[in-house]
Design a protein that fits this description.
The chain is an alpha/beta fold. It has 15 helices and 12 strands. It has a 5-stranded parallel sheet. A 3-stranded parallel sheet has the order 1-4-5. Strands 2-3 form a two-stranded antiparallel sheet. It is globular and about 60 Å long. It binds beta-L-rhamnopyranose and manganese (II) ion (2 copies). The site of beta-L-rhamnopyranose has 8 residues, from loops.
Length: 400
């Protein structure tokens, strides 16, 4: 009996490992900081090529990160003119361009917003940049264009909230019209920061509204840090799944706000519960959920590549654990309101140590059993620290 259970568990873990893929962010390899300052790391990536090189390392060591999210302003400074070079980098370093992230917040024209701005010139510039981002995505073969807006206001009465909503509907619809049939537009939300009174897309309901009003290829992007304290994120995930509106995730962890801490460093059970809702949905409906799993972290203190490897490992472990929930048993317990049995289904899966099975899987794929250890002994970090030190000390802007 015990042996049968174990074989089933191993099968489930292997299936999870074969299917789970997660995207790394290019900006996670570059120097970053807080609004109070920036700590420079000698090994931080200073060019798009270096970001590809670092992402290539993560993929070579883990085998589950075949794509890298690109930020148009930071990684493709010449717009469409940069795509040929990016294509070459992808071939050279073995990672494909993933989601394309427009930037409609850093230019001075966006002081009072992008699509929500009462000034038509700012809205037009934001629309042009968004269109360009869609074109870039087409050129690079990227499916998802991910939108995050800083639009909002800092003081009561200073913005016409309904007008801004209307302008957003109009502009997002115009962007959606540019998408190729296979492309998607992901709408990210965030409750506050940088705006501190109202944010135009503050929560999942607003993001879902805008996605729906733009067109059928728009979905919601859930950044795990972008919620109020103690909000039930897995419930949001379950709702979005049931509405067929969940497009993807930006994973990170937090203690207080948008801390961008390493996934699972504060609350691994939260991440597990999110994965559980997805896997449970797939089991119940018999169809795979079409979700882009992405990391959105840029570490201030930890070594960037090591932190990325740590995050990827954590995501892989928690996803594998979530597939171990006994769904038949859970469904029966829920039906009978057998609370403790239902809850234990989650707890038992969460408590299972999946690491030995993951090590076995890696071995079978010719991957290092311990990606972090392999990275530390590879000499890559020492090499890039020397190569990049000078450029890093000269100072580069955040993320770019
Ligand atoms: C924001 C948001 C975006 C990310 C930027 C760098 O807080 O999470 O997704 O692109 O940070
Ligand atoms: Mn994000
Ligand atoms: Mn964020």
């Amino acid at each position: 009996m015990v042996q049968i259970m174990e074989a089933r568990t191993t099968d489930k873990i292997l299936h999870a490992l074969e299917t789970f893929r997660i995207e790394v962010p290019s900006w996670g390899f570059a120097n970053t900081g807080t609004r109070f300052g920036k700590f420079i790391q000698a090994a931080a990536a200073t060019t798009t090529e270096e970001k590809f090189s670092d992402a290539g390392q993560v993929q070579a060591l883990t085998g589950i990160c075949p794509t890298v999210a690109l930020h148009v302003l930071w990684d493709l400074p010449d717009g469409l003119g940069s795509t040929t070079e990016v294509g070459k980098l992808a071939d050279r370093y073995g990672v494909r361009p993933g989601s394309i992230n427009p930037n409609v917040f850093q230019d001075q024209i966006y002081k009072y917003g992008s699509f929500g701005n009462p000034d038509e010139r700012a809205r037009r510039q934001a629309l042009e940049h968004s269109r360009l981002s869609v074109q870039i995505a087409k050129e690079l073969g990227s499916r998802d264009v991910s939108f995050w807006f800083t639009d909002g206001s800092n003081y009561p009465g200073t913005a016409n909230i309904r007008e801004r909503k209307r302008r957003f509907e109009e502009s997002l619809k115009a962007v959606h019209a540019e998408l190729a049939p296979n492309q998607r537009m992901l709408v990210e939300y965030k409750p506050f920061e940088p705006a501190f009174y109202h944010t135009d897309i503050a929560d999942w309901g607003m993001a879902m509204h805008f996605a729906r009003s733009s067109g059928s290829q728009a979905k919601v992007l859930v950044d795990t840090d972008h919620h109020y304290q103690s909000q039930n994120i897995e419930q949001i995930v379950a709702w979005l799944l049931s509405e067929d509106m969940l497009g993807g995730f930006h994973f990170n962890d937090r203690k207080y706000a948008d801390d961008d801490l390493t996934l699972g460093s504060i609350d691994p059970y939260q991440v597990f519960r999110i994965f559980h809702e997805i896997v449970f949905f797939e089991w119940e409906t018999g169809k795979p959920a079409d979700i882009a799993y992405m990391i959105d972290q840029s570490h201030n203190l930890k070594g960037k590549i090591e932190a990325m490897l740590q995050t990827v490992n954590m995501a892989q472990e928690l996803f594998a654990k979530a597939t171990l929930v006994d769904h038949e048993r859970l469904a029966a317990a829920q039906k009978n309101s057998d609370l403790i049995r239902a809850e234990s289904c989650l707890q038992d899966a969460f408590a299972t140590d999946v690491r030995p099975a993951i090590r076995e899987w890696r071995k079978s794929k010719g991957l290092p059993e311990d990606p972090l250890e392999a990275f530390r002994s590879s000499g890559y970090l020492e090499r890039i620290s020397v190569q990049r030190a000078e450029r890093n000390n000269a100072g580069v802007s955040s993320y770019a």
